[in-house]
TrEMBL record:
Domain HTH marR-type, first and last residues per copy: 7-131
Alphabetized Gene3D superfamilies for the sequence: Winged helix-like DNA-binding domain superfamily/Winged helix DNA-binding domain
Protein name in UniProt: HTH marR-type domain-containing protein
Source organism, top-level taxon: Bacteria
Cross-referenced Pfam families: MarR_2
Source organism of the structure: Dyadobacter endophyticus
SMART domains reported in the protein's UniProt record: HTH_MARR
């Protein structure tokens, strides 16, 4: 099978993705947050869902369960989340943020919602400008 070069639109999306990841890494370092990008993504999913199972995190992030299990273990050791058993299904581990985990999400959210250098805010929920 011969290698096919992806279309320019896919290449641009991959480049944009890489830029966003670099910016997130820069912000993590700037604020000295004790997490990696992957760990921050998990924390943000937990914050968005208040409590969520490891299995649901794996589905949302499209990562295998063993990777999520490893990352969750690291976050638990850092004191950023708590693991408990689901009351209805004892096989499921439910994840909730600790106060420290919430604080990290808030620092990152504040940074993500800061204005761009031109003074404009980016919001996916902002109405389109009328022309």
């Amino acid at each position: 099978m011969e290698y096919q070069i992806p279309p320019p639109s896919v290449i641009r999306l991959l480049m944009l993705y890489n830029v966003v990841i670099m910016m997130v890494r820069r912000d993590i370092a700037r604020h000295q947050l004790p997490v990696s990008v992957e760990q921050l993504i998990i924390l943000m999913h937990i914050k968005d869902h208040e409590s969520i199972s490891q299995q649901d995190i794996a589905k949302l992030t499209r990562k295998n369960k063993s990777s999520i299990h490893r990352l969750v273990g690291i976050l638990k050791e850092k004191g950023l989340l708590e693991i408990s058993l689901n009351k209805n299904d004892k096989r499921l581990h439910v994840l909730t943020l600790t106060v420290k985990g919430v604080q990290i999400c808030e620092v990152f959210n504040d940074q993500a919602n800061a204005p761009f250098p031109g003074g404009d805010h980016f919001s996916p929920h902002r109405p389109a400008d009328k022309k």
